[in-house]
Amino acid sequence: MNQRPLYLTEQIRLNDGSVPSSALTKHKKMAFSPFVFYRGTAPLFYSDIANSTIDIPDVFKQLPNVYVMGDCHTSNFGFFTEEGSHSNSVIFAPNDFDDACVGHSIWDVVRYCTALYLCKAHCDIVQPQHQKAVVDHEQVERAVSAFINTYADTCRNIESDTHLLTSALDTFSAPQKLHKIWSKAIQRSNGGALFEEKSAIAKATVIKDGQLAFRDDPAKFSPLTPEQYHQLQDAFAPYMDNEIVDITQRLNAGTGSVSLERYYFLVGPKGNAGHLRLSDYHIVEVKQQKVAAPVRASLLTHPVNKLNPAHLTARCQKHMQRRPDLLLDEVEWNNSHWLVRSRHHAKVGIDPEDIATGKRNIAHEGLVFYATQCAQALALAHCRTDRRTFSYESTASKAYRAHSEQVKNIAQQYAQQVVSDYAWFCSSLKSEAL
Q1: Record's InterPro entries (predicted)?
Q2: Which residues of 299-318 are buried (b: 16+ CB within 10 A; e: fewer)?
Q3: 319 within some domain
C-alpha cells in the first residue's frame, strides 16, 4: 500500500493545523502550481531528508556547518536596499530568512536546484494566459549545473580572496532580463526617479487629515480596533527608531508564512505631512515567527538552533547579509515570538515567469544566468558564517565540484516527487470540496 498520501496529510496538518482544505488561503495558493506548492511545504522537504526520501551524501554532512536560508528557492532571491530602509544601495541577494538556521549547505543547494526544475513546471501552467514561450528542459539542466558549479567556484574564489565577503551583486547589464528588474529597483530606492510613486512606502501610504497614514486597501490591510492599536503601540514602541504614526494589520502576504500574523508600523516624525519628505518615514514589519523548518525536523543539533524562532532568524540574517537591516530585533509578546525589521523601500522579487519565459530568456540563457547569480549570492551568504578560520570554503568547493552530477540527480528526482505530491494535493482539495 502506498503510504505517501497518509504521510503527506499528516505533514500538512502538522505544519498548517489542517489537512488539505480549500478554506485555507495558503492551500488555495499552493494549488496554483507545483512550484507554489513547494514554496508552501518547506517542512515537508526537511521531513523527506530525515526519512531519506532525499538521500544526502555523507560528504556534504561532513562539511563545516554554515548559516543556511532554510527555504532556498528561486523566488527567495531578489533586489532590495541594504540596511533595510536606511540605504539607497540596491543589491541582489537572498531575501527571506524565516527558516534560516545553522545547518548543512547542501540543504540550500538541493532545495534551490529542485526549484529550478519546478520553475519550468510552473511556467508550463501559466504559459497559455501569458502567451510566452517557456525555456526547454535542456536549459533547465544547464541552469542546475551552472548553479552547482558557480557555487563551488565562488567558494574557491572567497578562499583565495576573503575580501570578497564584503562584496555584493549590485550591477546588471543588458540584454539580461535581470537588468530591467534591477533598474526598476534602482528607480524605487530612496532618491530614485520613482521613489515617490512606486516605492513600497509610497504604494502603502496616503495623506489623511494632514498626516501620512496607511491606505484603505481591504485586500492588503485590515484596520485595528483602538484597543489593538494601543496594545501594539505599547508593546513595540521601544523597538522603533522614531515615533509610531500609524499601525495596520498586513493580510495575505507570503506563501509559507501567509497564515502567520504580521503588522505594519509607519514610523517617522508626526506632524503635517505636507511639509515633510516621504523619505523621512519608513515601514517596520512586526511578524510572528514559527520554528524554522530544518529545526522542526531535528536534522542537526546545534546550540544556536535552540534560540527562539525570532531570535534565530535575526541572528542568521545579521550574519548572512553584507549590511543587515539597521532595525532588526526580536520580541516576545502575546505568547508568541515576533521579528521586528524595517521594510525595504525598494524590494523587487523574482517570479518563475521572469526567468523562464519569453524570447529574451530563451535566446540569452536567462535561466542559466539567473542561476549563476543566485549561486554567487548564496555562496557569499554561507561563507560569511565564519570570518576567522575560513574552514568551509576549500572543502565545500571540492565537494560540490566532485559530486555535482549526484547533487543534480537528487534535485531532479525530488522535483518529480514534488510534482506527484502536488497532484495528490490538488486531488485532495477537489475531494474535500465534494
Answers
A1: DUF2252, Kinase-like_dom_sf
A2: bbeeebbebebbbbbbbbbe
A3: yes
- Tell whether 112 and 213 lie within a shared domain: no
Single out the residue in 322, 344, 366 at which a domain terminates. Answer: 344
The number of residues making up the chain comes to 434
For residues 149 and 280, state if they share a domain: no
Q: What's the domain count of the chain?
A: 2
Are 338 and 404 members of one domain? no
Q: Let me know: does 425 contact 30? Beta carbons within 8 Å.
A: yes
Residues forming beta bridges with residue 338, ordered by sequence position = 288, 331
Cell numbers placing 425: 494535493
Q: Which residues pair with 309 in a beta bridge?
A: none
- Strands 262-267 and 282-289, by their bridges, are antiparallel
Distance between CA atoms of 288 and 311, rounded to whole angstroms?
A: 12
The rounded distance, in Å, linking the Cα atoms of 6 and 18 is 13
pLDDT along the chain (434 residues), means of 10: 91 94 93 97 98 97 98 98 90 97 99 98 86 94 99 98 96 85 95 94 92 94 97 98 97 72 95 77 96 95 97 98 95 97 93 95 95 99 94 97 98 98 96 70
Q: Containing domain of residue 95, as a range?
A: 4-186+348-433
